[in-house]
Amino acid sequence: MSAAPACGRIGVGTDILRVRRLFAAAPLPSAQLFEAAGLARVRLRHLVAAFFVGRLVSYSICVTAASAGHRSLSRVFAKGFFSPQTIVTEVLSIALLVATLLIDWPTVIDKLRGWWAVRRGRPAPAPIATRPRRPPGR
């Protein structure tokens, strides 16, 4: 029987490395991450550095992507809202939004999982979601 860490805390070995990686890479809001760390009785000093490094990296990526998007789209919209490029951009954006809402994602994911399993020589997995049947008359 192995001895548990004192007070149920994670503090040695690979457990703390896993927690640090979670804090550095998780796209979760910080409040929930720190609440989970508190419930797990993780030492806060082990997580603060990983948290700030992770946020610095993720926010830098977001700012860089937003800046690149702003540069490319500002050239398109600088010509006016009725230029051909702007109209095509608007129509494609609306079509992508509508497609995202109308696609039956569970079915698409099931088909892709089945295709991937067959490609690897495995049996197709069970469907991830089944549609609930509506009662008759509704």
Describe the 3D structure:
The chain is mostly helical. The protein has two domains: 1-78, no CATH class; 80-128, no CATH class. Helices cover 67% and strands 0% of the residues. The protein is built from five helices and no strands. It has helices at residues 13-25, 30-39, 44-78, 84-102, 105-119. Helix 1 packs parallel to helix 3 (44-78). The longest helix has 35 residues, at 44-78. The N and C termini lie far apart (59 Å). Mean pLDDT is 77; it is low at 1-12.
What's the quick description here?
By secondary structure, the chain is an all-alpha fold. It has 5 helices and no strands.
Any descriptors?
disordered N terminus, 138 residues, 2 domains, mainly alpha
Tell me roughly what share of residues is in helical segments.
55-70%
Number of helices: 5
Strand content: under 5%
Low-confidence stretches: 1-12
- Whole-number mean pLDDT: 77
- The radius of gyration over CA amounts to 24 Å
Structural classification: mainly alpha
- Dominant shape: flat
Number of domains: 2
Q: What is the element string, with H for helices and E for strands?
A: HHHHH
CA-CA gap between termini: 59 Å
Largest sheet: none
The counted number of beta strands is: 0
